[in-house]
Automatic annotation (TrEMBL):
GO BP terms in the entry: sulfur compound metabolic process
Domain Moybdenum cofactor oxidoreductase dimerisation stretches: 263-352
Keywords, ordered alphabetically: Metal-binding, Molybdenum, Oxidoreductase
One function term, GO molecular function aspect: sulfite oxidase activity
Domain Oxidoreductase molybdopterin-binding: 58-220
Protein name: Sulfite oxidase
Organism of origin: uncultured Truepera sp
Cofactor (UniProt): Mo-molybdopterin
UniProt-listed InterPro entries: Ig_E-set (IPR014756), MoCF_OxRdtse_dimer (IPR005066), Mopterin_OxRdtase_euk (IPR008335), OxRdtase_Mopterin-bd_dom (IPR000572), OxRdtase_Mopterin-bd_sf (IPR036374)
Cell inner membrane found in the keyword field: no
Origin: domain of life: Bacteria
Gene3D superfamilies linked to this entry: 2.60.40.650, Oxidoreductase, molybdopterin-binding domain
Amino acid sequence: MKIAGKTPWLTLHVSSPLQSETPLTLLRETRVTDKANLYIRNNQDLAGSMVLDPAGGDWRVTLVGPRQTLPLGLDDLGRYPQRETEMVLQCSGNSRRRFAGTSPVSGAGWGDGAVANVVFGGVLLRDVLGAAPGLLEGTRYLTARGMGTAHEDDLPAFERSVPLDDVLNTALLATTLNGEPLPALHGGPLRLVLPGYYGVNNVKWLCRLGFDAEPTQNHYQTEKYRLPKRPLEPGTPFEATPANSVPSWRMRLKTLLWRPLVGETLRAGPVDFGGVAWSDGRGRVARVEVSCDRGVNWREADLDTPESPYAWSEWSLTLTLAPGEPEIWVRALDDAGRAQPLDPNSGWNPAGYEWSSAERVRLSVR
């Protein structure tokens, strides 16, 4: 499916619903990912939404709490202070095929390009709630509903719940992307944006926000986008339920090596390495380390520190490589004491969510 304004070089995984990822050669071109190169992943069908143009028409979202209901139009949101957040947007299934290399997993075979670094703009939810205190009484969860029909099982709506106290100060009612009106394809005209959370929780085409005592019982909350509470051996059958699993909420610490790329033949001698690293914002990326001897020795890379804790950090390092086929490992550590696991099987689950082990890339050096 061709979409006007989108690069033709996105890698197509599924045509319906459309699922396409960004090649690393495009992803590394700019710090902020252009909308033309932004990956595509939707869980709903909404007529007229498969365009990069802004969505037209009158759009309203209703905030619903136990003691108060607050309907808002886009004009209403325009009266509040406008904020911007630079952040990583990432599908829960990003890098799924790395899990599949260990044992088969279900879902689209995402490589490493179901991720982007973007700037969302709009209104902070907390600014709206200042005029509606009755929405919060006795509530623990924020439940977002997206307009349109959910793809699976012909469900009438798509909903996700997140812990309210965790997102209250950062949740954004987004109307812009990279300083322009939010494209319909990426959730416009209104999207709930939760910095530090996986993309599925950043609900597109937002039409309802519930302030609830319990999470939604929607299929996409109780059965999909969940991970086992206990580690599984690769290949172990597993059917997720609220009792045996947890939702895919906050992003895990992760690195991405995009220079050099897998398949490149390199000349022996100095080789420039580079990529990005990010976290959920609770702890900033503190170090990125690179090993060319399978983790025996590590070299610390140069690392930038973006203003936003939710944006990715670019890293770079020059290593001298001898002829051969070295396996390069890359890991990130943050200032909250977290580090990427070295075990490539860490976190394996049959749905292939949240791959976050240290990078392992084999290169050819001549």
